[in-house]
Amino acid sequence: MRYDEQMTHYLLDGHKVTEAAAASAWMRYSETSTYDMPTSISIWQDATTREGEESRAKLRAARIEVCLEDDEDEHRPPETHPHQDQTENN
């Protein structure tokens, strides 16, 4: 199942970009790699599925992150709670 645009976002060099910008960067990268065009398109499409971790790993080689709603927390800085009860640690 492909995630829709509202559930997926894209990072290029760590900066949030549009799907079109990320796809363009992937196509430029794949032109210089061993992937032919149909394979590049297939990898891109697979990367937007829950099962597409292997494809997302290939995109990371091009400094592109496909962030699905499920893994969004992985790309968010950890939250700090300055008023957290310190007695929990004692």
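Second entry:
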Amino acid sequence: MGVGERGNEEARTVITKTRCPHTGVVNFFTEADPLLAVGCVAESAASHFAWHCHLDTPASGFARDMKVAEAHLRSAIAARRPAGRAEHYERDYLRRSDARP
């Protein structure tokens, strides 16, 4: 796969975010499983933001700005999701879902 092709695959990965009105935590989801958070960003003490990536190899860190924390989280998600993986996961999930009564 060429560099241009991989860029197109990564561009198709849609990450959405939703802020919990009760806790203020911002959860991040992918189109492959829009109900399972792949990461989150939360404000911690001393005006820092903690970010956590929940994928295969968890990663986390702190940033002084929400946008920087989101950027770190998106990078961690991209590093842990090879191109095309979402399509395979979605296909396998749908196949298992069809088997249910």
